[in-house]
Amino acid sequence: MLVEEQVITPRRNDTVADSSDFTDCLYRLESANRDIDERRMAGLGFLFDAFLARAASDSPEDVSLQVDAVRELAADPRALGRPDRDGTDFRNEAGQRRDAYAWLVERTASTSLMHMADALDTTVKQVRSRVQVAAAGLVGLPAFTSQARAGVIGYDRYLYGATRATSLEPEHLADFDAGLTRIRVSDMTAFKRAVTQLISTLVTREERARQVRDRRTVETYYEPHGLGTLIARGPSHQIALLEARLTGMARSVTKGLGTPLGVPENREIADGRGMGELMFDFLTGSQPAGTLTTQSTSSDSHTTPGRVGDCIVEAANPAGIDVDATAEKIAETLTETGVQCPVDAEWLKRQARITITVPALTLLNDSADAESVPGMVNGHPIAPEAARQLTGTGHSTLYRILTDPADGTVLDHAAETYTIPEKMRIALVEKWQYCTLPGCDRSAAKAELDHIEPFNHEDPGRGGPTTMGNLHPLCREHHQMKTDNRLKVTRSPDTGMLTWTLPGRHQLTARPPSNPIGQVHAQQLLNLTD
């Protein structure tokens, strides 16, 4: 059978053709993501409605009035014809919402959720967790929920805030809700840290002590293919000190500095492990301690039957090389040397330093009855008494960091040289907390400080000053991309916000993240002047 030759003419696909433009693709992605967020918020509402219906059916007494009241509290005000409700209304409802949330928590423990678990193809435990998050968000966090419904924040950010709310006592929800709406950060990582700081300002001294005591533990998880995970939970300052020691040891190894670790003078480090591998191995040595592969620093040999790094191993039998014997000599050249974490004060000061931030009023007021603002260790909250104790027993130098009296953010500190003073470096780390490129979660403490306007080495007075306003932390990767002109950044002199220009001329903005601990301390200072 003959087959006619056909000429295939490709048909134009407008959808494919339009997708070649990155801006259009990004617009469609953002639009689709907004639609998904709206559906996820609606789904959370459907889940909550189903739970209320189940709770009413399972209750031995008539709870229809309570259920109706809870439904009204959780409903979208726009659906009730009251779109003008504001934070004042929500604050007036704080007591009602607190009692409603406590009532709901009791019902989640007693209500059968098997029907919902079957509908969602999940477990009863997972459904109960979702219902508790929905109750905390829709009933306990009305202002924060309004932001999510209006698209001001994404669903993932909302879900994280509502999930963290489930760990709070009902009486803290109103303040937590107000604090969440004041958080202004550029990315999710900074938001999570700000939420943690906010929670630390709400819980009482007794609650903080109980939480630290109850959560101090080590967890282990094992996967079928041989990977194990170790999670240590405890006081944040102890975890930070452990991290600093491990990092300092690993950094010394990668730089070839063996003397502080106890490597003999006639040995040098020839260890190929990376930072993460070294930190793990030292940690599991539990001192922290471990072993390093080292080689001899001297050799009288001029024959080359075996070379280990820069060390030449003499042949066992130069006339007729004995391979086995020579291999043994090479093995003897590379030996395992035991090392442990240094205790030298100067080494610890340089390599294993942590930053402890204590609000002025917390530092000055050590009364056991005072409600002090928490301190921070490397940006993470710690109890006020722990912050005072660590500050009093640590290094004798204190750096003053000035904060805005209105919102507690770190203010600029000036300098006139290219070399960045230590107190300015500390202030920049506290101000930005992370690499300033939105979406990067690398810590500012481990980042490089970049001049937004390049420093003028020939005439420092003509531009690129070493000031807080012209400096910001960048991780090594993004700093190099900026140096290569693949990324550009400018700073608004009025707002202090950074504008990043990415490849394709797409722009992102970054602002110093909110610091709820600083906000509470600022309010305390304002109260003193009233």
Q: How many DSSP helices?
A: 21
Largest beta sheet: what is the strand line-up?
Answer: 3-4-7
Largest sheet: 3 strands, antiparallel
- Roughly how many Å apart are the termini? 99 Å
* Poorly predicted runs: 1-6, 12-17, 299-313, 413-418
General description of the model:
This protein is of the alpha+beta class and 530 residues long. 47% of the residues lie in helices and 12% in strands. It has 21 helices and 15 strands. The strands form six sheets. A three-stranded antiparallel β-sheet has the order 3-4-7. The protein is globular, with a radius of gyration of 30 Å.
Summarize this structure briefly:
By secondary structure, the chain is α+β, with helices and mostly antiparallel strands. 47% of the residues lie in helices and 12% in strands. The chain is globular, with a radius of gyration of 30 Å.
Please tag this protein with its features:
three-stranded antiparallel β-sheet; alpha+beta; 15 strands; 530 residues; disordered N terminus; 12% strand
SSE diagram, text form:
Elements: H1 14-18, H2 22-58, H3 64-74, H4 87-92, H5 94-110, H6 114-120, H7 124-138, H8 142-149, H9 155-165, H10 173-182, H11 188-202, H12 205-215, E1 217-222, E2 228-233, H13 236-254, E3 267-269, H14 275-284, E4 289-296, E5 306-308, E6 311-313, H15 323-333, E7 335-340, H16 345-351, E8 356-357, H17 360-364, E9 375-377, E10 380-382, H18 384-393, H19 422-432, E11 448-451, E12 471-474, H20 476-483, E13 488-491, E14 498-501, E15 507-510, H21 516-529
Antiparallel strand pairs: 1-2, 3-4, 4-7, 5-6, 8-9, 9-10, 11-12, 13-14, 14-15
